[in-house]
Amino acid sequence: MTQFPKDFLWGGAIAANQVEGAYDLDGKGLSTSDMLPSGILSPHQTREARTAGIKDVAIDFYHRYPDDISLFKEMGFNCLRLSIAWSRIFPNGDEKEPNEAGLAYYDRIFDELAKHDITPFVTLSHYEMPYALVENYGGWADRKLIKFFERYVRTVFQRYKDKVKLWLTFNEINMSLHAPFTGVGLHEDATEQAIYQAIHHQLVANAKAVKLCQQIIPDGKIGNMLLGAINYPYTCNPDDVIAAMHENNKWLFFGDVQTRGKYPGYMLRYFRENNIEIAMEEGDLEAISQASVDFISFSYYASGCASADPKQKEVGNIVDSVPNPYLEKSQWGWLIDPKGLRILLNFLYDRYQKPLFIVENGLGARDEIDKNGEIHDDYRIQYLNDHLVQAREALLDGVELMGFTSWGPIDLVANSTAEMSKRYGFIYVDRHDDGTGTLERKRKKSFSWYQEVIATQGRSLK
């Protein structure tokens, strides 16, 4: 097999808070992302102390989406993963009635995608929530958020049931362990007890969303989304193998609950040994047990290593890891491991026996415009080519793979550091870290490369 399946979904992935801008237009409320003008690695601010940030305008997708979607179609996309900003629909999160202007905006987006025969693939909560829910309820620490989220989900399902058939619940849900403000609206110094309690509420909300999708959109599919941070043992020392098992269990826990419908034994042991007691209400576990997702989606950028020796760890972008001496690093220090994608695909498929979807993969790099006004991003082409070759290998291994949406098909604001200089796109956006630039779009060399990959169903990969 030299090509991907005929029904394979090819495209790219973006997030509302990293592309839309228009943070205060048409009734939108402030989100937790709006309160992180320097990215998730910087402490959040109060509403009163908030300063302007690059995400306030981002790349102005809010106004420029018709042209951007046209460029995606030119590349051959048949799928675009995007997110709905919860605070556009319910500005404070706890209103009884939604904001019609926000709903109408996404109607226009989905109609534009339909004009170009591009399937919308929508994330319900992509690293943001209404900031008022943090101020007034303490974020996901309060189980009232389950009902607020349920109301939001029911609203968008009923509104878009004829336009959107593919859904995700929470983006990289396991990242709440490393960035709790971004994931569950808790302060960065929150205890493990508090974080896991908030996560429990989010897992119940995830189950409610799955059931609502089944009821309201019976011909739709809904999946979860993990940060696929697979860890290898640093050595063949059994202690390192066990260390890797523990590290992988930290994120597999979320997939196990969302797929198998119960808290796994290794997590119950972790709670016992660390004096973590999860407060549950009657019906929580039953709701989770009856709401297995239809498919598993994940991001994959890099692998890591785990060692029983704490001295081996080094500080990473968000997640600390042990460096792998066999792999090169990107300009931002992320390990480049294409074969790790094949390993991860096999690992997840063996574990869950559900269809998989690679919803984020890409290379953040500093792109330079040459004297001819062109951007020759061969490094990005090589990165994506090598990863897609390994995805094809996984298909040959028997893995059921639904699609591939590269992260940032158009340059966008980096989530971790709110930089524009960390570019992922096939399309260059003239905007810079200081907020200057014309916002003009320009095709990079990788644009025509990805266009050919899609047109040939992957036969052009090398």
From TrEMBL:
<dbReference type="InterPro" id="IPR033132">
    <property type="entry name" value="GH_1_N_CS"/>
</dbReference>
<feature type="active site" description="Nucleophile">
    <location>
        <position position="360"/>
    </location>
</feature>
<dbReference type="InterPro" id="IPR018120">
    <property type="entry name" value="Glyco_hydro_1_AS"/>
</dbReference>
<keyword id="KW-0378">Hydrolase</keyword>
<dbReference type="GO" id="GO:0008706">
    <property type="term" value="F:6-phospho-beta-glucosidase activity"/>
</dbReference>
<dbReference type="InterPro" id="IPR017853">
    <property type="entry name" value="GH"/>
</dbReference>
<protein>
    <submittedName>
        <fullName>6-phospho-beta-glucosidase</fullName>
        <ecNumber>3.2.1.86</ecNumber>
    </submittedName>
</protein>
<comment type="similarity">
    <text>Belongs to the glycosyl hydrolase 1 family.</text>
</comment>
<dbReference type="InterPro" id="IPR001360">
    <property type="entry name" value="Glyco_hydro_1"/>
</dbReference>
<dbReference type="Pfam" id="PF00232">
    <property type="entry name" value="Glyco_hydro_1"/>
</dbReference>
<keyword id="KW-0326">Glycosidase</keyword>
